[in-house]
Design brief:
This protein is an alpha/beta fold. 43% of the residues lie in helices and 17% in strands. Strands 2-1-3-4-5 form a 5-stranded parallel β-sheet, with helices on both faces. Helix 1 (17-31) links the parallel strand 1 (3-9) and strand 2 (34-40). Helix 1 (17-31) packs parallel to helix 8. The structure holds flavin mononucleotide (FMN). Flavin mononucleotide is lined by residues 11, 13, 16-18, 85-89, 132-135, 140, 168.
């Protein structure tokens, strides 16, 4: 096995267009020899960050919820794909809360100088960002990209590549666009192949 690739789904729709693109990317990674898993943030039981700052001194959050398991998966993944729709010119609130709760990685890395991700893992792992939007305007991905890149930085998963698809209001059903499905598959496969090297 080349490694484990985790897909983080930010859309609330388990069979929506974002989910289909993520499935394609994970299929590509699987075909490159990786084990794959999806974290669907909408199915997790967790609260937003309450700024209790427990993670300033400890390797986890004081809030005992589904994020505890997610932290371990994020820490141990060999690469990570974040797939999300644009909502209100950013990312969906629940995905943002998920990312905010990853402050445990921020504190460990930037405040205590003891990153949770092992240096040898950081060297190999990479982040792929998949994002779709209803509208087709130049700045539509700006907010989502800033957040995604900050997330990849915080969790020591260097940004590798992106697939940004606008104009979903016209496309409607991503399954009608084989070129876009193929693009997601190819980017997932490249991510997986990079791990095998
Ligand atoms: C609450 C909400 C807010 C949205 N805000 C934006 C937006 O600001 N800009 C945009 O281009 N599309 C926006 N969209 C459209 C979605 O990005 C688009 O429909 C996307 O294809 C949804 O993907 P999904 O069906 O996989 O969740 C919004 C959709 C919802 C439900």
């Amino acid at each position: 096995m080349a490694g484990t690739v985790i897909g983080i789904l930010g859309s609330p729709l388990p069979e929506g267009n974002t989910a289909i693109l993520l499935q394609q990317a994970l299929k590509g990674a699987a075909d490159a020899g990786c084990t794959t898993e999806t974290i669907s943030v909408n199915t997790l039981d967790f609260q937003p960050c309450m700024e209790m700052m427990f993670c300033r001194e400890h390797e986890t959050c004081i809030m005992d919820d589904d994020m505890q398991q997610a932290y371990l998966k994020i820490r141990d993944a060999d690469s990570i794909i974040v797939a999300t729709p644009v909502m209100t010119m950013g990312i969906p609130g629940r995905l943002k809360s998920f990312i905010d709760r990853c402050q445990v990685f921020f504190m460990a890395k930037y405040v205590r100088n003891q990153p949770l991700v092992a240096p040898e893992k950081k060297k190999v792992r990479r982040g792929l960002f998949i994002c779709i939007s209803g509208m087709k305007i130049p700045e539509v991905f700006v907010g989502a990209k800033l957040t995604a890149k900050a997330f990849f930085d915080i969790i020591d998963c260097p940004f590798h590549d992106e697939l940004l698809i606008s104009d979903m209001d016209t496309i409607h059903d991503i399954r009608t666009r084989k070129d876009l499905l193929d693009a997601a598959y190819a980017k997932g496969k490249a991510l997986g192949e990079a791990l095998g090297k």
